Each structure stands twice: as C-alpha cells, then as structure tokens.
UniProtKB/TrEMBL annotation:
Gene3D superfamilies: 3.40.630.30. This is Uu.00g144900.m01.CDS01. Residues 11-214 form the N-acetyltransferase domain. GO terms for molecular function: acyltransferase activity, transferring groups other than amino-acyl groups. InterPro entries: Acyl_CoA_acyltransferase (IPR016181), GNAT_dom (IPR000182), Trichothecene_AcTrans (IPR052523). It comes from the Eukaryota. It comes from Anthostomella pinea.
Amino acid sequence: MPPKAEAAPEVKVSLATPDDISQLIELFWATYKGPGESIFPHTDNGRKWLERSFQNFMSNSFYRPQTKIPVVRNPNGRPVSMAIVHTVKPGQSVVGKSWKTRWSRCDDLPDMSEEKLAGFFEPSAKAHHLVVGGKEGHVFIELLTTKYAYRRKGYATALLQWATEHADELGYPCYLDGGGRGMHICEMCGFKAQDVERRYGGTPPCVPMLRPKKDS
C-alpha cells in the first residue's frame, strides 16, 4: 500500500467566490497556454466564456451537478491553486454534450469553437462513463491545477484531500482524469487507475482514476 499523502500543515483550503473569478481565469489560462489556446483562446471572448462558466459553477442548480471550487491562496489572498469539483447525483449526466450545461454555451462567441470544446471534453467523458456509469452518485474532480511558482508545496494534495473528504461525507466514490506528473499524488490519495481500453475501443486521452467510496 502506498504511503498516505499529507498536505503541509500550514496549507489552508477555502472556497472561491465570484470576486475571485478574474484570478481563476488567469490560473486556468496558465494551465492551458500554448497548444491549449486553440481550445481555450486567451481573448476577450475566451474570457467571457470562462466568466460565464465560473459563474455557472458558483450558482445553484437542481438539474446539473453542483460545483465547488476549492482554492489555496497566496499571502496576498490570490488563488494560486484550484480544483473544480462536481457532486454528481444519481441519474445526472457527465457524458456527451453535458459539458455545455456544466460549463457554458459558446455559440455567440466567435473566438470559441464548440467543435474544439467537444473534442476536448467528450472523449474523456466517455472514459469517465465507463468507470462510474450513469446511475451512481460520485464526486468528479474535473480540474486540478497549481500556478508554476507554487508547486511542490502540498497545495494539490490539500485540494485532493478536500475533495475526497467531501466524497466521504456523501458516501460517494471520487473520480478524476489522471495523467502526467500528478499521478503519484492521486495514487497516494487513494485513487487507482482503471483499465477501460478494451471497452473504450483504444487508448483514452486520460488515465481514468477512481477512489472507492469509504466503507460505512
């Protein structure tokens, strides 16, 4: 069994508010720069789409997964690490075009391409569905990112622990799309890679990872 991940004791997690949205956008753009800008353009319309999306995340809805954005802030109070965490109730969809209700519409924003957004979200959603199905409630960590200058400080671990504790309170499993240098952190927080390649029909664009629900 791998050692349990531990966040640095001084790391404090809080929830983002509408006042943080402009800084969350900058953090998001820092994650998707270079090739990622073709999907998430760093333009006025790209900003408008993200503003809508973060506003959507912070609003209440009975028809789509409820979303929270836990963050770690620097000494000046600016978010420098964030997660986008959805509580998916039984029967709520996370596949196909559900990203449009989870994030926001883009048909009135010329810089944004629905085709490119679909190409980004929908292949991962297929793998997600193969792991948790469409009926089981679960917590879905859709994004976990830390500003480069603040990495290796335990911030990602603290956010993962926040999300998994939230899942445990609900009695839900927790799902995320893994990959790259963050895999070991996910594993230390109890996530295990799921083999869906045969059912997926090839190699998915991410590594589907599941943390089982806590034993009652």
